[in-house]
Automatic annotation (TrEMBL), chain A:
TM helices/strands, residue ranges: 9-30, 99-123, 135-161, 181-200, 242-264, 284-310
Record-annotated ABC transmembrane type-1 domain positions: 95-307
Localization: Cell membrane
This protein's name: Peptide/nickel transport system permease protein
GO cellular component: plasma membrane
UniProt entry tagged with the keyword Cell cycle: no
Recorded GO MF terms: dipeptide transmembrane transporter activity
Family: Belongs to the binding-protein-dependent transport system permease family.
InterPro entries recorded: BPD_transp_1_N, MetI-like, MetI-like_sf
Coiled-coil intervals, chain numbering: none
Keyword field: Cell membrane, Membrane, Transmembrane, Transmembrane helix, Transport
Source organism of the structure: Bosea lupini
Domain of life: Bacteria
Entries under Pfam families matching the protein: BPD_transp_1, BPD_transp_1_N
Automatic annotation (TrEMBL), chain B:
Protein source organism: Bosea lupini
Location of the ABC transporter domain: 6-255
Topology in the lipid bilayer: Peripheral membrane protein
A Gene Ontology biological process term: peptide transport
Location in the cell: Cell inner membrane
GO terms of molecular function: ATP binding; ATP hydrolysis activity
Gene3D superfamilies linked: P-loop containing nucleotide triphosphate hydrolases
Residue spans crossing the bilayer: none
UniProt keyword annotations, A-Z: ATP-binding, Cell membrane, Membrane, Nucleotide-binding, Transport
Family from the record: Belongs to the ABC transporter superfamily.
Name of the protein described by the UniProt record: Peptide/nickel transport system ATP-binding protein
Cellular compartments per GO CC: plasma membrane
Length: 317, 326
């Protein structure tokens, strides 16, 4: 197990390096000059040069990358062109906000998805299976910005139970774990949970159906186990894959959904990315993507480790 | 005569679905305590289904079982869910064909054996583990302490089957069902497992029903044999009776289709044709289309079950005729 652990963690290094190079290049390949948005249209040639130098855009790309990476490792992601504030602070705040609703959404999606998946897998072909599968398909295919708006119309406008958007009375800066703030999480989290719910439910259904078809299930019954005893075995067999899928889904959600965060004006990473793209704010864009990619990589390692703990066969690979 | 451990009376098994399959068509058999019955037959002859009926392991929703199944004085087909799970493992347990598939891959062998012990006996987890270790010693697994904590994929095929046997013996069953327990193993390992099974059966005094398609294996372990064809037992008797004096043409064909004594270049004896489809209950002799001695009466009526002595039955119109060895 320790060698497995060490191996998984060592694999992170080349992946992280590749990811950072990729997201640096990606942003630079995109057309358009980042300075056009900050400079007045009638800026002189000399002024342009100075600003360019200030941001370091005049140096060759490899040097820029090296400098950027060196600073990034130390936690400095540069300053935003649009706002002039440090990128790291902006990104961390947004990641914190997105983490809140993404975790809640993943928990909701995982619990519901597992429930529907187990029901559908256990009662394959029955009415229950069709109903649960229908919900799963609906979950992955419904446009979630539309669902978000419908939820706002029903629960905020019509019923007035939950706030329609924002991150609380004082914005995200004054986050507290009270109803005032938590109530703002509910609608975006539910909207966000719909896709992971559908995907996890489909995966678990297939897993359960496959496990129940394996020969060890009658063998378990043959030694006298009743339904609950068999269920315990099905769960442990399904858990590694289900958790892996959940981890990946959490990774996707961390990227924040631009659409959902816009609908609910939730100050998360999706919101931040959207702004950075429209304003051609290169340092902000790079920083956000890098942090998100690192989260994704870290999450995958975590999933691998948990999988190794649960399934002895994984450790050998 | 003692009360038999197993008494199946006219058992029929049908699988419902797009097409009904008549897998078992009127099987009657008995097994005395402490004896070994070998059920011999080719794939699809209903031998595994017969075995699974004894544990009611067939999918309930798609299976119709008729007749009567008594094991150790219990009417197996009438057991409620709780009684059934008390019966499974404790009275009757089963060794499956492929231990690689029949053991749960994500639990250790020790956990799986202990689970069966705790299910049927009031023991703590620790006591159950200690007994699991004894069982692994009983089936002569090398370095059993280590194997207790091993996962199935960390063991060889032969060791897995030994672990499977230990698991089946966990709750001291009176009847052990073995569904081709050596088919998935290497030839050298097969012999070891057979010898082990035979010895455990003698030491523990269990009744065993052993299903196989391999005559050699069946002869090695059994006291009595039952030959199955198309969901019926076509001939039963002691091993000696069946080998010396096979009466049913199918049994004779099986014995002739043997590599022993065959000379190089000589054509091997085989039974022509294939088993009949089982989508209808048989109304005539199922073997007639492949039988060299078939008469009109064979194709018209079900053949009678002719009793030739104590526990010796042959389902053939010519059973009583003094057939000369083919």
């Amino acid at each position: 197990m320790l060698t497995y652990l060490a191996k998984r963690i060592l694999y992170v290094l080349p992946v992280a390096l590749g990811v950072s190079l990729f997201c640096f290049l990606l942003v630079h390949i995109a057309p358009g000059d980042p300075l056009t948005s900050v400079l007045p249209p009638d800026a002189s040639q000399q002024m342009q040069e100075e600003i360019r130098k200030l941001y370091g855009f005049d140096r060759p790309l490899p040097v820029q990358f090296g400098l950027w990476l060196w600073k990034a490792v130390q936690g400095d992601l540069g300053t935003s062109i649009a706002t002039g504030r440090p990128v790291a602070a902006e990104v961390w705040r947004a990641v914190g906000n997105t983490l809140l609703i993404a975790c809640l959404a993943t928990v909701i999606g995982f619990v519901l998805g597992c429930f529907f998946g187990f029901v559908a897998g256990y009662f394959r072909g029955s009415f229950l299976d069709k109903f649960a599968s229908m919900l799963a398909v609906l979950g992955v295919s419904v446009p979630h910005y539309w669902l978000g708006m419908v939820l706002v119309i029903v629960f905020s406008v019509q019923l007035g139970w939950l706030p329609p958007g924002g991150a609380g009375p004082g914005g995200s800066a004054s986050w507290k774990w009270d109803w005032e703030h938590v109530s703002h999480m509910i609608l975006p989290a539910i909207t966000m949970s719909v896709i992971p719910m559908g995907i996890i439910s489909r995966t678990v259904r297939a897993l359960v159906a496959d496990i129940l078809n394996q020969e060890f299930v009658p063998a378990l019954r043959a030694k006298g186990l009743m339904d609950f005893g068999v269920f315990r075995h099905v769960v442990k067999n399904a858990a590694p894959t289900a958790l892996a899928v959940m981890g990946l889904q959490l990774g996707y959600l961390l990227g924040g959904s631009i659409l959902i965060e816009t609908v609910f004006s939730w100050p998360g990473t999706g919101f931040l990315l959207g702004n950075a793209i429209f304003q051609r704010d290169l340092p902000l864009l790079q920083g956000t993507i890098l942090v998100l990619a690192m989260f994704f990589v870290g999450l995958n390692v975590l999933v691998d480790i948990v999988q190794g703990l649960l399934d002895p066969r994984v450790r050998r690979r | 005569m003692t009360t038999p451990l197993v008494a199946m009376e006219n058992v029929t098994v049908r699988f419902k679905g797009a097409q009904t399959v008549h897998a078992v068509n009127g099987v009657s058999l008995t097994l005395e305590p402490g004896k070994v019955l070998g059920i011999l037959g080719e794939s699809g002859s209903g031998k595994s289904v017969t075995l699974k009926t004894l544990l009611r392991l067939l999918p309930e929703s798609r299976t119709e079982i008729g007749g009567k199944v008594m094991v150790d004085g219990k009417d197996v087909l009438a057991l409620g869910p709780q009684e059934l799970s008390d019966y499974r493992g404790a009275v009757t347990s089963m060794i499956f064909q492929d231990p690689a598939l029949a053991l749960d891959p994500v639990y250790t062998v020790g956990e799986q054996i202990a689970e069966a012990i705790v299910r049927h006996e009031k023991l703590s987890a620790k006591q159950a583990m200690a007994r699991a270790l004894e069982l692994l010693e009983l089936v002569r697994i090398p370095s059993p302490e280590r194997r207790l904590k091993a996962y199935p994929h960390e063991m060889s095929g032969g060791m897995r089957q030994r672990a499977m046997i230990a698991l089946a013996l966990a709750a001291r069953p009176k009847l052990l069902l073995a569904d081709e327990p050596t088919t998935a193993l290497d030839a050298t390992v097969q012999i070891q497992i057979l010898l082990l099974l035979r010895q455990l059966q003698r030491d523990l005094g269990m009744g065993v029903i052993f299903v196989t398609h391999d005559i050699g294996v069946a002869v090695e372990v059994s006291d009595r044999l039952a030959v199955m064809y198309a969901g019926q037992i076509v001939e039963t008797g002691t091993v000696r009776e069946l080998l010396r004096d096979p009466r049913h043409p199918y049994t004779r064909g099986l014995l002739a289709a043997n590599l022993h004594g065959a000379k190089k270049g000589e054509r091997l004896e085989a039974i022509p044709g294939a088993p009949p489809p089982l989508n209808e209950a048989p109304s005539s002799c199922s073997f007639a289309p492949r039988c060299k001695q078939a008469q009109d009466i064979c194709r018209a009526n079900l053949p009678p079950a002719v009793a030739l002595g104590e526990g010796r039955l042959v389902r053939c119109v010519q059973a009583e005729a003094a057939l000369q060895p083919a």
